[in-house]
Structure formats: structure tokens, C-alpha cells
Amino acid sequence: MSRSLLVFACVYGAASMLLAGCGRTVKAQQDKAQDTGPTQSTVVPDVNPNHFKVEHPEQFRLVTAKEYVAPPELNVTGVVNPDVSRQVPVISLASGRIVKIYTQLGDTVKKGQLLFQVRSTDVATAFSNYRQAVKNEELTKLQLDRAKVLYEDGAIPKSALEIAQNAEDDNAVLVETAREQLGLLGLDSNHPTGTVDVYSPIDGVITDQQVTNAAGVQALSAPNPFTISDMSHVWVVCDVYENDLAQVRLGDFADIRLAAYPSKVLKGRISNIGPILDPNIRTAKVRLELYNPGLMRLGMFVTATFYGPQKETYASVPAAAVLHLQDRDWVYSPAGSGFFRRLEVTTGNMLPGNMQEIVSGIQPGAQVVSDALNLQHTVSE
Predict the structure, then answer these.
(1) Based on C-alpha coordinates, what's the Rg of the chain?
(2) Is residue 343 assigned to a domain?
(3) Domain for residue 292, yes or no?
(4) What range defines the domain where residue 145 resides?
(5) What distances in angstroms separate CA 356 from CA 75, 288, 351, one per listed residue?
(6) SS3 321
(7) 3-state class of 153 per DSSP?
(8) pLDDT tens digits along 10-51
(9) Integer angstrom CA distances of residue 123 from 115, 167, 293
(10) Could you give the CA distance from residue 70 to residue 35 in angstroms, rounded to a whole number?
(11) Distance between CA atoms of 156 and 261, rounded to whole angstroms?
């Protein structure tokens, strides 16, 4: 080979090696620019957020919703009020100033118990009139006796005797009237006093007090010093919306539960449905009458449950099958191929055997997961 060809071959080989190295460098740089880390997995969510797929669905035991028959219920709130027909105002029969009060608001009193005393000029006037009537009657009686003697002796005519008899009769009437006046004030004609004692007319609780010591009172006028309520029977007044009035009927009974004693269930009879609706909230006042076992106090909040006339069919499931989430109640129902649906339900009362009434959302015969909380934990992981 000539010297010229040898030089050309060497130059060509060096150039080829240089170009190959540059190509590899450029490719490495391109690959490095495209390499941004590990490949990310893409999760495609289900269109329905309450539709889930889980592995090994067989581990979640299913139960069948049972049939439960009961009348429809309407739950409303109410307040304990006194029975107006059992409220008695305590009044003073004499005007004056209160000198002593023996009871106060909230006290339980017995019939005939002394409540307060009033010092009154009416009392002094009544005793004065009585004593004067007695004196006048004594005088006219003496004059009548003398007239009888004179008439028998022929000293006076019969008309004079009749005048004396008439005067005696008039004064006897005045004495009797004055004595009755003292009795109306609660006073004893044989024991003069300047005060009037006011007693409780019934057994009950003092639910209103309008006077204090040294306060003035007016006879037979408002405000009444005290009001006593017989708490053996009370009223519960509820607000029922216009759309629910069809479920409320006069004479029916309702279950009443006290907020203070939720385990106690009392029975009240509907005695009145208000004829006028509140124009702002569209409710009517419904009054229940019931016996007070001693637990109910005026102003207490209660829940009243009214029942419809005809029974309806509902579903019932174990309480563990219901999940309370985001202020709602849910159950899980199988959807096949490892999928479960989360269904919103409306719950009712707790039933015997730790069963939960389902008012709406599922029908009797539907299958649900027996332990909703366990499935929820699996879905959340």
C-alpha cells in the first residue's frame, strides 16, 4: 500500500471514531433530559363515588334486611306547661300592706297553709262596723222588751210596739251583715285583729309571685300576689307543621320522652289542635294532657311521637350494618364482581335484638354488609 493510502485510512478511522462518540454523547444527553424519575401509576376513579371495589369480598359477611311492620311516626318537639284549669290565683280580700310572707316562688304548699299576712284598714273598718251594729242591736232589743211590757199594761198603742219590733229586726240584720263581712275577710268576730291571713286554696306549687315583704296589695285586683298550680297533671304544647297535621287527631295518644329522662316514656292524649297557624313558620299548636309522675317541670323540653292510623312496612337490619358518616346514615350493598355500593338510608327507632329500623333507602329482602364500619376501614386504606 502507498504511503498516501495509509495516511487516508488513519484519518478516516479517527474521524469515524470521533463521530460515533459524539453520537453516543448526544443520545445520552437526550435520554437524560427525558428521564424524570420512576413511572407514575394512574388511578381512574369510579364515576360513582359511592361505588367501591375491594379484594376478597367474601370476607365481608352479608345479611338480609328483615320486614318490620309499624304505623308511621311523626316526631315533634314540645314544652311542658301548667294545666290552666288547675291553676288557682291567690288573692287578698283586703287592701293593705304585706307584713310577712311565709312562702316563695317554687315552694310546694298544702291546702290551708298560711302564705302571707296583710295589715289593712279594711279590717279595722269591718270590726268597727260590727261592734257598732252589735251595740245598736242590744239597744233596740232593750227598747223592744220595754215596749212589750208597756203594751201589755196598755200604756202604749200597738203601733209603738210594732215600731220597736221593726227597729230590732233591722239592727239584727245589720249585725248579721257585719259578721258576714268579717267572715269574707277570713276574720273571727270573737278575735279582733288588724291583719288578714291569706291561706293556700289548693295543694300545689307556687308558679308565680308578684309581691314581696312590705308590698301593697289591692283587694280582688290584679296582679295576684301568688299563683298556685296543681302539677299532678300538666300540658305539653307542641309545634306541628302544616304538612304533618293529617297525622294528628283529637283523642289519640302520643309517646312523650323528656330530654332530662330519655329512658322514660309517658303517654299523653291530644286534647286540642290550634285553629290558628303561625304565619311565619306554618305550625299549629297541639296540646297534650297527661299525668305527671313527678318528673315533669314547667318549661322542660320534650319529644312527642304521634302515630299514623295505618301500619306500614319498613326494613330492619343489625345496628352494626348502619354507618354514621358525615351526619348521614349509610349501608353497604353488594354490587357483584367485588364491588359494593354505599347507600344512604333514613333510620328510625332502635328495635329489640339490637336491630335498627330503616324508614327509607332499602327495602325488606335487600342484602347489606353486616359490619359496615369494617368495610369502611378497608375502603379508606
Answers:
(1) 48
(2) yes
(3) no
(4) 121-193
(5) 17, 29, 6
(6) helix
(7) coil
(8) 444 444 544 444 445 444 444 544 554 444 333 334 556 677
(9) 18, 27, 42
(10) 68
(11) 87
